[in-house]
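Why do we bother with holo predictions? Because pocket geometry can differ from the apo form. Keep that in mind while you read this record for glutamine.
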Amino acid sequence: MSPGPAAAIAAAVRAGERSAASAVQESLTAIAAGADLGAFNAVTAEAALARAEAIDSAVAAGEDPGPLAGVPVALKDNICTRGTPTTCSSRILEGWEPPYDATVVDLLNAAGAVVVGKTNMDEFAMGSSTENSAFGPTRNPHDPGRVPGGSSGGSAAAVAGGLTPLALASDTGGSIRQPAALCGIVGMKPTYGRVSRYGLVAFASSLDQIGPMARTVTDAALLYSVIAGHDPLDSTSIPEPVGNLNGALAGDVDGLRVGIVTELCGEGIDGDVLARLEAAAGALASAGAEVGEVSVPAAVFGLSAYFLIAPAEASSNLARYDGVRYGLRVPAPGAVDMNVATRTAGFGDEVKRRIMLGSFALSAGYYEAYYGKALKVRTLVMRDFAAAYERFDVLLAPTSPSVAFRFGERTANPLTMYLSDVCTVASNLAGHPAISVPFGSGADGLPVGVQVMAPALGEDVMFRAAAALERLLPGTQPAAARAGSAGAVTKGTAP
Ligand code: GLN
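The structure, written out:
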């Protein structure tokens, strides 16, 4: 089990062996050197250094700043930070500064972490490549001519490029796991309700979850442990206490029942990705796991259901951007004209497409045929998963159907972009936890991620399998380590 860079920084800072200020400065230097990646929307250098000094003073005074002492963390720009712009990479939030911190931000601060900035994303988290950002795309640190995945491409590139050891992101249909896979890092979506959504800008409220990105499974578990737990400010928050994951991370997979999901390994999944999945399954089997195949029949309809439910909820959630309450206002005579002008100028094409799709799916006369039917499919997905988990402890599938693709490759036809999510949306529909772990490389030497899924509140067994996979294969080197420095991998051609 590799301790991971975040765990090492926290241990050294707590022991007084290194300063939080040096750790934060190192990260800020790497962020500046890696500016070409387009990973950050904002870097909060001054506040981060001041906070690092406060942590160092606490250590000097004999206090323990917490399990993430001095660890630099990047936040996806849909997580509210008091007094720092939270843009969702959208023009419509221009100039808006949240009056409060998200619960996860409070928890990070209480654990001694240092927020260093806000990361780029697909506008309002709608996309799979970060090409839908109003501020320009993020590049993949492994190949600057390719996308980092999305919608949390900025957070993934920050971690993979060695700019920060940790990042938080959000996952509605795969936005943590898919970019993690494409960038060769670990990304995890917790059980729905396990991490507070208070202060996460809503996309599709019944699917959204905040989760960790890290270079190792241990670091992801460390960050998850800090942010998980009940929050009275989120009415969907789970009251059960969060267990300790140490046993899971050190545990073996002897006798663990691992099911490979047939429906997620068929048509549309590239051969190089399937080869890595087979290698992962073989490695688990050689470590004593009982590996078999399992059918989750409704999984094939997951994508269609997701692309009705998520836009339906988005069309409602995004109604609040009316030119009055947040950010941008384009003046026009009369409230309705002002509202139309603001939304026309403020939202990008994909966001408009989702609002229209969602409004249509919810409209009288179509509601039952589209939204109602999608909800029924969602129930079937849950039932099929429940049946699969009677026979297996965890399920295995690819995270993404392909390695990182080139800029522009999937922008012409939205459906080709939507297919990027085919392996990840089912866990969101079911509300289950899932993690992507790097497991070697595929086409063009680019990273491939393998996805471990578990039943609701099965984080323990999910991390057990993930840690085993990491041990069984060192995985791809983080891009920064491969290229020797964070800056060296960022010089690329414009997409
Ligand atoms: N790529 C998916 C979408 O476009 C998922 C996004 C997400 O998880 N935020 O909706």
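Residues 6-248 form a domain with the Amidase signature (AS) enzymes fold (CATH 3.90.1300.10).
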